[in-house]
Amino acid sequence: MSRRPKFRPEAWLASLALIAICLISLGNVIVRYATDASFAFTEEFSVFFLVLLTFAGAAVAARHNQHIRIELVEHHLPKPMLKLVYLLQWMAGIIVMGITLWYGGMFALEEYQWESLSPGLGLPNWIYVIWLPVMALAIMVRMTQNLVDRLQGKQDGEVIHES
């Protein structure tokens, strides 16, 4: 069975976030070396892009069943029990991401209503925070797609873990 391509919006978003972090950091190092000063915005943007990269990468991993988990139980259970384990794994993930979605959405709404500004650049904070519930929802969708595939027996090939 061939693997599904990973060229999804989350993969592109993660790639762009990583490129942005690298460019911002490189630019800051060059400016600091040349002028003994640094860009004020680099930390604010770098943290934002790092969080975006983390959640986008988590969505890609959720879709391809590559999250860290204890596989020993899966490998030693009879086939009928596997579906129950898959459902329990999915439910645990949905609960965690549902809480993240709810509280992240409430936080973004409050930041918007209070017109909070970021400390470094004075940009509206909700611009940064809105990505938390959006990416939590993306992870939930990808986890559900992965669950459907696993229940139907369509799984990616065995992931090789390096030690």
From TrEMBL:
The keyword Transmembrane helix applies. It is a multi-pass membrane protein. GO terms for cellular component: plasma membrane. Residues 21-152 form the Tripartite ATP-independent periplasmic transporters DctQ component domain. Pfam families: DctQ (PF04290). It comes from the Bacteria. The chain crosses the membrane at residues 12-33, 45-63, 84-105, 125-144. One of its GO terms (biological process) is C4-dicarboxylate transport. GO terms for molecular function: transmembrane transporter activity. Its main location: membrane. It is found in: Cell inner membrane. Part of the tripartite ATP-independent periplasmic (TRAP) transport system. Belongs to the TRAP transporter small permease family. The complex comprises the extracytoplasmic solute receptor protein and the two transmembrane proteins. This is TRAP transporter small permease protein. The lineage of its organism: Bacteria, Pseudomonadati, Pseudomonadota, Gammaproteobacteria, Oceanospirillales.
